[in-house]
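Structure in, sequence out. Go:
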C-alpha cells in the first residue's frame, strides 16, 4: 500500500461557529488513547469548555474509566448512530464537567449489523453534526485497528490526535496511520493529523530517540507536552476517574494539563 505524506493542517477549514471534533486514534492498542481522551476532556472542561466524550470502542474503556457502569446506561452510541434523534437521551452528565455518549460491550456485535447498511461509514458524522453547536470540543475514543467504528471516527473528525508510544516500533505505527488517513481522506478530504502526543515516556535512550525522530519527521504537529510512564495514570481508570482528578499533583496530571493548554491554543473555542 502506498503511503501518502499528509499535508500539515490544524483544522483551518472548520466552521468557527461550531465545535472541533477530535478523534484520538492509533491502530495499535495500549498506547494511552483512552486515557488521553478522558484526561484531555476533563482538563478542557475544567478550563470552562463545553466537552462531549464519545466512546466508540466496544471495550467501553472510556465509559468505565469515567465511572459509568453498564447498569447505568439506557442508550449507547450504537443507538445514536442508528437514530441520531435519540442523541439527547444518550448523553450522560458526569461529575467531572464532561458529558458522555457511552458504549457497552454489546457494541462488539453491532459492527455486523452495519455490514450491509448504505452509508455506514457516515453514521457517526450524521449523529454528531446536530450536537456541534452544544459543545466546544467533541472527543471520540476510537478502537484500535481499522474496523467500521474507526473509519466512522476518522470521517466524523476535524482532526486526529494520535498518541504515539515511545516504543521501538512507534514510527512503523505512524506509517500505518498515514496510509489509513490517505484512504479515509477520499471521504473526508480535510482530515489531517492535528497533533501527535508522545506517551509512556521514560528515561531510556530509546524513549529519547523515538521522541527525537517523531519531532524531526512531524515538526510542530508533535505537541510540546509529553506524557510520562506513571503508575497513577494506570491506577486512575480502575478508580473510575480521570488522572487529573485521581492524582492531580502527579506528573501524569501535570502533563495532561499542559497538553490541554496546547489543544486550546491549536483549536481555540469560538
Amino acid at each position: 500500500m502506498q503511503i501518502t505524506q499528509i499535508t500539515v493542517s490544524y483544522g483551518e477549514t472548520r466552521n468557527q461557529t461550531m465545535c472541533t471534533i477530535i478523534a484520538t486514534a492509533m491502530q495499535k492498542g495500549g498506547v494511552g488513547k483512552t486515557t488521553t481522551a478522558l484526561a484531555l476532556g476533563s482538563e478542557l472542561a475544567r478550563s470552562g469548555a463545553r466537552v462531549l466524550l464519545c466512546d466508540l470502542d466496544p471495550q467501553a474503556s472510556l465509559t468505565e474509566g469515567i465511572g459509568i457502569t453498564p447498569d447505568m446506561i439506557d442508550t449507547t452510541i450504537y443507538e445514536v448512530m442508528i437514530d441520531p434523534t435519540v442523541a439527547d437521551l444518550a448523553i450522560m452528565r458526569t461529575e467531572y464537567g464532561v458529558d458522555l455518549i457511552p458504549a457497552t460491550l454489546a457494541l462488539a456485535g453491532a459492527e455486523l449489523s452495519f455490514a450491509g447498511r448504505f452509508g455506514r461509514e457516515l453514521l457517526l458524522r450524521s449523529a454528531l453534526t446536530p450536537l456541534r453547536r452544544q459543545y466546544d470540543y467533541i472527543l471520540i475514543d476510537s478502537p484500535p485497528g481499522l474496523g467500521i467504528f474507526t473509519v466512522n471516527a476518522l470521517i466524523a473528525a476535524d482532526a486526529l490526535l494520535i498518541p504515539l508510544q515511545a516504543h521501538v516500533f512507534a514510527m512503523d505505527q505512524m506509517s500505518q496511520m498515514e496510509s489509513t488517513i490517505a484512504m479515509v481522506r477520499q471521504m473526508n478530504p480535510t482530515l489531517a493529523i492535528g497533533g501527535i502526543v508522545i506517551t509512556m515516556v521514560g528515561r531510556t535512550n530509546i524513549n529519547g530517540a523515538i521522541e527525537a525522530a517523531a519531532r524531526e519527521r512531524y515538526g510542530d504537529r508533535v505537541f510540546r507536552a509529553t506524557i510520562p510512564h506513571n503508575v497513577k495514570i494506570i491506577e486512575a481508570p480502575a478508580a473510575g476517574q480521570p488522572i487529573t482528578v485521581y492524582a492531580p499533583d502527579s506528573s501524569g496530571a501535570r502533563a495532561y494539563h499542559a497538553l490541554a493548554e496546547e489543544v486550546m491554543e491549536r483549536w481555540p473555542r469560538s
